[in-house]
């Protein structure tokens, strides 16, 4: 065998091995371990990075933030967030393409619309922005940034190994699972959060790799950080089963708190955009102003600064009175609105835990005043309120419930917690939206409602299924020429374009027939001039001008909606909505065929089968 034949066989063998690697279960499991380790170290890196930045600004790296901050001079608390805001503003202005930090919402959008792909550079820059923000005292959570970095690592592993779409999405879930598990030292919560929010199903083929990644992240966290939960919670007891109506009512209150909290964050974003736009304040200066406002709040109430785990922990241990719980609930909501509105980095997970704990603790104290013999410690209500508010905000009731169970290691509270969580998520989804992230996506023009199959249509675009063969007529053609063209055409519908190929209208046989009848009627009535005028009309004169159309870059979900609204079997396709140059047609049958393939693809991926047509 000569060298040429040997090289050929090696290339064939390597090609087959690569194809097998792209689709095999073994490759997914190996990839999940790599992603789990990478995301775990990413979570540890962000956590330690926040402490390092915190030491630069405040002089101490301790996660017990507000008790140490009380010992500092007031001007340090005021100026440190503003100084951090200057660094963040410059990073956002010069390094981020859309000039806005990304968190968990970007991961949901990436998995729904871009097959889980996130650029490595964007992920790393966002991680830097987030850790500087939180280290400087911005009032937000670290879990969202950690999850974003985990998904970025998963995306990069998928890109390097050339994995297909199905495996890429599974690895994205692995990155999210590992990051979540490492953040809370809670592997079960990491697993079900990834399955519940990212994949949207609990198929067995995805379960094993997600578990591998979550366990890897948890082990790394316990090796490098320690084997202890995020909060130290005393053991609480439910006094009597007569408390369960109170847990139902707490679910209602938690839903209201969650709705007000989410509304406040979005209102803060809109208000900052409006005010800074009117005053022409540049993007880089907004975090500086926001930092001053946050610092001003923190001078008197440092509990609202940073991630806020220490204050949440104290609420769970029943360390705050009613006045303090209510004040911290209001001020934390305001501080988070300022933080995210002024374009600091950070997530929404920790703030939801904080707000829920304060609301639940206040509810428990009030319940104890009214029914002193039937109410448990308000620390228990703080714990249940924390779970209920967070579940409503995240739209992840199962994950939140598991997080609480893993933090408390007490399954006796299961019934009370599940009652409040169920009531809160039901009310919130009914009156406000499924989650903070779904609302956030809709505000950005991305409607992810409609199930995974619908999202698959949103991930495909018109140019992928359109037909570039179509009948066209120049707008200046005479009626006689149009009539001859229709006699020989394969289709009865024509697209009328100008000399540069831009859309003018749509011409079908009924429009031509009506124009010819006008000529005949004018001649029958002896009106020769009117007949000549009618005969001199062009294709543009008789074509329908008000016609729907779609653009190349638009997704198939939008195109299907346009087809259904117009009632037409097909629509013209233009290169973009400004030039309106016609490049093809999109038929409803082709879109429905793509939709059917999306359904089959989603079902096959959930079962772990080979995807049809791939």
UniProtKB/TrEMBL annotation:
The chain crosses the membrane at residues 26-54, 74-96, 169-194, 206-225, 246-268, 288-308, 320-340, 352-371, 380-405, 411-433. Its main location: membrane. The keyword Transport applies. Keywords: CBS domain, Chloride, Chloride channel, Ion channel, Ion transport, Membrane, Transmembrane, Transmembrane helix, Transport. Coiled coil: none annotated. Residues 466-525, 543-605 form the CBS domain. The keyword Amino-acid biosynthesis does not apply. It is a multi-pass membrane protein. InterPro entries: CBS_dom, CBS_dom_sf, Cl-channel_core, ClC, ClC-type_chloride_channel. It is found in: Membrane. Gene3D superfamilies: CBS-domain, Clc chloride channel. PANTHER family: CHLORIDE CHANNEL PROTEIN CLC-E. This is Chloride channel protein. It comes from Marinibaculum pumilum.
